[in-house]
Amino acid sequence: MDFKKRPSWDEYFIAITKEVAKRSTCLRRSVGAVLVKDKRILSTGYNGAVKNSKHCLEIGCMRQKHAISSGTRQELCRGLHAEQNALLFVTTLGINTDHSILYCTNYPCSLCAKMLVQAGVKKVIYCEDYPDELAKSIFIENNIDIKKFTP
């Protein structure tokens, strides 16, 4: 009997983050996030402008226009990060995120790291690095398990 190889849970959820990232409206980086608890998807998120606002795809990127470096001055952006969108969606439904896992295409920034700690996320699995040393220290200080996904 020929059985096809099933993806591991990490492979499965990381593949979904990459699909979610395709919805991104950011001109600089497409990021996808999937919030999981007990091997069930609670929420997904991608980076893009807040609801009812024009997307950067339509009006251009403020960060590019002003040559703002990646990882700095995050408040100067029309959009929310994928992790933020995933967390904000579950709060509208009243879903408990304690002991959940965040799968993400990119390592979270320090602002997202603080939100993930507050939301009770206990593990982050990501694909690509992001230059934010403060995020790393926040995760270490709060005993959040961080794992870079390697296929």
Oligomer: single chain
Termini separation: 26 Å
Which geometry do the CA atoms define? globular
> Could you spell the SSE succession in H and E letters?
HEEEHHEHEHEHE
**What radius of gyration results from the CA coordinates?**
16 Å
Overall structural class, as computed from helix and strand content, comes to: alpha/beta
Mean pLDDT: 91
Spatial order of the strands in the main sheet? 2-1-5-6-7
Low-pLDDT segments, ≥5 res: none
Give a quick account of the main beta sheet: strands, pairing sense, barrel closure.
5 strands, mixed
Beta-strand residue percentage: 15-25%
Counting DSSP H or I runs of 4 or more residues, the number of helices is: 6
Query: How much helical structure, as a percent, in the residues?
Result: 25-40%
Compute the number of strand runs: 7
Q: What does it look like?
A:
Helices cover 34% and strands 22% of the residues. It has a five-stranded mixed beta sheet with strand order 2-1-5-6-7, with helices on both faces. Strands 3-4 form a two-stranded antiparallel sheet. It contains six helices and seven strands, in the order αβββααβαβαβαβ. It is of the alpha/beta class and 151 residues long. The longest helix has 13 residues, at 9-21. The protein starts with 8 loop residues before the first helix and ends with a strand. Helix 5 (110-118) runs parallel beside helix 6.
